[in-house]
Specification:
With 353 residues, the chain is mainly alpha-helical. The protein has two domains: 220 residues, HUPs (Rossmann fold, 3-Layer(aba) Sandwich), CATH 3.40.50; 90 residues, Orthogonal Bundle (Tyrosyl-Transfer RNA Synthetase), CATH 1.10.240. Helices cover 51% and strands 5% of the residues. The longest helix is centred in the C-terminal third of the chain and has 30 residues. It is globular and about 70 Å long. It starts with 6 loop residues before the first strand and ends in a 9-residue tail after the last helix. The structure holds tryptophanyl-5'AMP. The site of tryptophanyl-5'AMP has 26 residues, from strand 1, helix 1 and helix 8. Tryptophanyl-5'AMP binds next to strand 1, helix 1 and helix 8.
Length: 353
């Protein structure tokens, strides 16, 4: 008997260009799983983006460009089902149904919600005047619907999304407990999920933090961004000796730590170890570290930029596969929604029958 293929689902908000956190935290794994022949669903979370988005004019353009970047990174709409969240409107119906088993206190304790709320309160992130919405509070419920609607086994995401996946597991369990086994509970996020720090040394690289290195950055921009990273002129004190070659020494200044993390992701092991040796010996090397890293980054970006600009990777191509893939995911999704309606006692939808 053939084993059932594992179902993979993940999404990214169309908030602009993809950065290295998105790539190494998520997209790289998306491509690996696709190439392993798993049943993959990858989508652009445009509904989710509405919780923070203020620029209407660029929204659709950004969505298309993100999809072109997906393709440039190796995601293949012939192998993975790549779609737009809003093209699967029954996700909104499932969100509503799942809301009936979701505790408000649980949502209010969500770290992303609390974080957004504090930023909103002290008016630092440009979203001022955008009141805390029902949509923002319900963000994890919508995310649970995305995951549960395709019966996902695995949700490859960066470490920052761990709590959201846990909430989805919790919501599915509550639903099953109350209405009978209906929803598949996904696995928790892998323990080694990445959280790439920002170029400013902040704990997370992120668009709203303005500390990203982007996949579409050209060599000039890459060098400018990396040269601008703060590195103290005095070597940081060394109080910890580590025999683990791939470990960044904890005492390192945070932004220097980011440079090492990036070097570790991109450069061959011997180059990384060589720079680690320079750090341990407290040599003067920051300039060389930055130019070396900038070269690796630009080399990494080059083929992605090329494929992004490939004339065949155009809007028409994207719209065509979006249409086709929305048709592929819809039956699976409707099956889940119908099962939930049935379990809750509403009965099947008559207009779909
Ligand atoms: P988003 O758009 O913020 O990020 C997309 C993916 O990139 C990962 N990521 C990072 N990984 C490591 N280090 C970083 N600095 C970093 N920054 C971003 C994120 O973990 C994510 O995997 N809520 C989601 C989108 C979403 C979703 C879903 C994901 C909506 N529904 C269902 C999975 C399943 C989000 O805002 O990701």
């Amino acid at each position: 008997m053939s084993e059932k293929r594992e179902i993979i689902l993940s999404g990214i908000r169309p908030t602009g260009r993809l950065h290295y956190g998105n790539y190494f935290g998520a997209i790289k794994t998306f491509v690996d799983l696709q190439e392993q022949g798993k049943s993959c669903y990858y989508f652009i979370a445009d509904y989710h983006a509405l919780t923070t988005l203020t620029e209407r004019e660029d929204f659709f353009r950004q969505t298309l460009d993100m999809l072109r970047t997906y393709v440039a990174c190796g995601l293949d709409p012939a192998k993975s089902v790549i779609y737009r969240q809003s093209d699967l409107p029954c996700t909104a119906e499932l969100t509503l149904l799942l809301g009936m088993v979701t505790n408000i206190g649980h949502l209010e304790r969500g770290t992303t919600y609390k974080d957004k709320m504090s930023k909103l309160t002290d008016r630092r992130d440009g979203t001022e005047g955008n009141p805390l919405s029902y949509g923002l509070l319900g963000y994890p419920v919508l995310m649970a619907a995305d995951i549960l609607i395709v019966k996902a086994d695995i949700v490859p995401v960066g470490d920052d999304q761990r709590q959201h996946v846990e909430m989805a597991m919790d919501i599915a369990q509550k639903f099953n407990h109350r209405f009978g086994e209906t929803l598949k509970v996904p696995a928790p996020v892998a323990r080694n999920a990445l959280r790439l720090p920002g170029l400013d040394g902040a704990a997370k690289m992120g668009k709203s933090e303005h500390n990203t290195l982007d996949l579409l950055d050209d060599p000039k921009t890459v060098l400018k961004k990396i040269k601008g990273v703060q590195t103290s002129t005095d070597p940081a004190p060394l109080s910890v000796e580590s025999n683990e070659p791939d470990m960044v020494i904890p005492e390192m200044a945070p932004s220097l730590g980011t440079l090492y993390r990036l070097l570790h992701l991109l450069a061959p092991e011997d180059v990384y170890l060589d720079f680690m040796g320079k750090y341990r010996r407290q040599e003067k090397f920051y300039g060389l570290l930055k130019t070396t890293l900038a070269e690796y980054v630009s080399k990494f970006n080059e083929p992605i930029i090329e494929r992004y600009n490939d004339p065949a990777n155009n809007d028409e191509f994207v719209m065509d596969f979006l249409r086709e893939n929305a048709r592929k995911v819809t039956p699976v999704a409707l099956e889940t929604v119908e099962a939930c309606r049935q379990a809750m006692g509403i009965g099947h939808s008559l207009h779909r029958a």
